[in-house]
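Go through this chain for my students:
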Amino acid sequence: CRSVDGKTTLFFMPHCPQLLYNNVLYTNWMALDRIWIIGNSLSGYALNQIGAITPAIAALLPYIHEEKMTMSSKDITSHAYFENAFNDLSWINITIGDEIPTKPKMQEMGEDSLLQEVI
């Protein structure tokens, strides 16, 4: 995952695994207020308890703001398969204020928790 280098950045991540969201958040920890994500509901991972929630997502749950993206009834009736494919799609941003939460240590995440940097 790349750092946003001080620029506001949109990550388009529908249907990505939780680990990839973890990596984006972890890599951009000092710039969380400058990232937006279109992807699976991060709070949904905690609410639905789908497996173990990753440390970066767990640490940021109180700061995550999501707006569910919905389709119109016309879209759903004419293309029902879209409803299931994008039923958990959300606009996501992190609002942290003045005090940045403690970044999880690599040991807490486990050696398999971070994917290799994408070049």
About this structure: Residues 115-119 have pLDDT under 50 and may be disordered.
